[in-house]
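Field: sequence (string)
Field: structure_tokens (string)

Example rows 1 and 2, in order.
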Amino acid sequence: MQSTVKRPVSLSKRLAQWGEVIGALAIIFFVMFPLVWMLLGAFKNQIDIYSTKLLFEPTLDNFKAIFANPVLLGSNIWVSTLVSFLTVAITIPLGAAAAYVLSRHRFKGRNTLFLLILITQFVPAVVVAIPFFNLFRAAGLIDTPIALIIVYLSFTLPYAIWLLRGFFDALPVEVEEASYIDGCNEFQTLRYVTVPLVLPGILVAAVFSFISAWNEFFFALILTRSDSLTLPVAILGISGPRGPMWEQLSAAGMIVMVPILVMSFFIRKYFVEGITVGAVK
């Protein structure tokens, strides 16, 4: 038997490996430090919030305070949830249908239409803010969830079409042709074959749409006043005689982050599955 001799790792390779580890730890630190600091601040009292100590007596009073007078974030959470879910409920069916047509059907101007859809993603929000405001003011939709949903669809729908078209293009046509041979029509093929195979992309598009609507601040600040204030805008009003209530702001920030962290955790595997979606029988 031939014995295998391990060659010593050179000093340059070891330094490179340690450099990669240190760089990765530095990135993790700079990304996680604000989140951890906000998490700690959410459980601090008014005295501890201005200190840098890590050991303190935690309290839940901040979470109780943001749901009581005068903050009352409960209604704002409901508005944000309603707007986000309705945005997803409209974006996914329309986006999937448009992406399927652009991927599977050949018609004149198809690529031009797809390019125009992508161009809308490069338009700065501040450019269309005034036209949107004038339009909704004339229609009487200022300070309503409907106005927010329409605006959010203007950037979630193009993204969903772009993303899902890539998933449909990656799916071999032979899979759908096999279902046609088995007697399925186009609608049945789309429902029972195509959609289940591109489900990872649909889930990713849905979560992106939800997060975009949940976190959106600029249009919500312009188009809402009191009745339809979303959670990110309502957080601006958390202040008191001593100025910003940092402990309550931290607690409200944690509430904003929880749905995003949960969804990001559950969809992380679908990004990998989307690469190998579909198979030719």
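Row 2 begins here:
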Amino acid sequence: MAESPTSPLEATLAYADGFHTEDEILRTARQRGAEVGAPAVPPGGGAALCFLATAINARAVVEIGTGCGASGLWLLRGMRQDGTLTSVDVEPEHQRLAREVFAQAGFSGGRVRLITGRALDVLPRLSDGGYDLVFCDGSRQEYADYLAEALRLLRRGGIVVFGDALLGHRVADRAQRDPDTVAMRELGKLVQSDERLRPLMIPLGDGVLAAVKLDD
């Protein structure tokens, strides 16, 4: 049976994602992530991270979920040259691989701070209002808790970003009721209803949900 033709919407989304490309270092990070079970942010989602970090001239960024370094590299490339990325992950081996990627890309020393541990144990130790951007790519069922921590960590005008916000089209399908999908829908409601936030859903990669912190 012949395959159904690609719909205009599918073609448009594919074009938007294909507009953003990876270099060899990012492709290496993606390949390593696939090998160890730590999927990397797609190029469209990564480009969104880089854009947002650039737009607010980010100097201090928190990343939840280091993986093998792809998302961190997108963020670092958008940040100020004197900026520092603080990245948290429960897997020390993933962070070892990420450190290699960062060094290969020329980001080492004080530019990257890797902390091994569970995000909800680490985040409370970070400074209130001390960060420009918080990127969340950890446990989907902890995203609501990450949001609460991000609101404390971010300065006014800072941005909180959530990866995999569409979960392979499952979030839009109301028949899908698995725990991760339900958690992502609930997160969307929380972000939409919080008067301290101005949100934006970006349908690049697997979906990027971003929100600017308006006030405390």
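free_text_note (row 2): DSSP finds eight helices and seven strands in the chain.
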